[in-house]
Design goal:
five-stranded mixed β-sheet, three-stranded antiparallel β-sheet, 23% helix, 309 residues, 6 helices, alpha+beta
């Protein structure tokens, strides 16, 4: 009866005898001397192979004559289980190969020299040549990479160089149209801004606390108006693209930014104080302050089709 209840290992030295698995079990007397209590749910000791009641089920309670026998059997069973990798040598678990560095005969992938993988050139090196500077990583083409990928990289760098040179030449040729920054002293600037507010024009729906007052100019050859400069105010929540549309309309400048795909026909906004061309999606309040000067220039953006595939 006891053997049927000890099929699986337990964490304790005793197991409960289940009457559902043994139809003949209708209760047993505790086998501890001087107890002899009838228990309908007795416990079986896996060390001394006797039956006890609830109060005497542990080895200590019934002073087991073979204490610790169940624990020893469990330990021996665990030791008998095969371990991971049993019967295999270390050389079966690693891939041995020579170091990828030139003139290096060290074998990597062994137990003593595991090897270091370089993710840039996709090669394995010994400890001496593990650094990129030691194995000249820049001059190596990564294993598995397509050669044309490097051609595209070189063409991209060449395109940016052409773009930089073209933009510099275009800005230099337009330098005559760029005004000088206004005086930067606090007192003079405050007076200039106050005078600017008196004459500036703009959308009256813009709240006064959100207005940014600017000097707006354009190249004389790009406008049909008699006066190619003016004073205007815009909302600080507007983007530069909206300011460009409003300024071009006020100065009567042809604006084909939404019609022509050629960058040479498009207008750009140059910030005099910042010394750079503003992006269309930049907010007015983040790049401009009252009293600044912006200039509308045509054809100073990046030219198309610089990369010849």
């Amino acid at each position: 009866m006891a053997s049927s209840s000890t099929a699986e290992p337990q964490d304790t030295s005793y197991v409960k005898m289940d009457k559902e698995s043994d139809a003949t079990l209708i209760g047993k007397h505790c086998q501890l001397e001087y107890c002899n209590q009838l228990d309908f749910l007795p416990f079986f000791c896996q060390s001394c192979k006797k039956t006890f009641c609830l109060d005497h089920r542990t080895e200590t309670a019934h002073k087991c004559a073979n204490a610790g026998a169940w624990a020893e059997r469990r330990r021996q069973a665990q030791l008998a289980k095969p371990s991971a990798g049993e019967g295999r040598r270390m050389r079966d678990l690693v891939s041995q190969k020579p170091c990828a560095a030139d003139d290096c005969k060290t074998v990597v992938g062994t137990a003593l020299v595991p090897g270091v993988h370089c993710s840039s050139c996709n090669r394995d090196y010994c400890l001496k040549h593990r650094l990129k500077e030691e194995h000249d990583c820049k001059s190596k083409i990564p294993i598995g990479a397509r050669p044309q990928q490097f051609d595209v990289t070189e063409q991209t760098r060449s395109a940016f160089a052409k773009l930089k040179a073209w933009g510099a030449a275009k800005r230099e040729s337009a330098g005559r149209a760029l005004p000088k920054p206004k005086p930067s002293s606090a007192a003079v600037r405050l007076v200039a801004v106050n005078n600017l507010k008196k004459v500036a024009k703009g959308d009256t729906k813009v709240p006064p606390e959100k207005r940014v007052y600017l000097y707006v100019e354009a190249e004389a050859e790009t406008t049909t108006a008699k006066n190619y400069k003016g004073e205007f105010f815009y909302s600080k929540d507007w983007v530069i693209g909206r300011v460009l549309d409003a300024a071009a309309k006020s100065l009567q400048i042809e604006n084909v930014n939404n019609q022509s795909p050629d960058e040479r026909d498009k207008l750009r906004v140059f910030h005099v104080e910042g010394g750079r061309v503003l992006e269309f999606n930049e907010k007015v309040g983040s790049v401009l302050v009252s009293g600044n000067t912006i200039v509308l220039l045509r054809g100073i953006g990046p030219p198309p089709d610089l990369i010849e595939m």
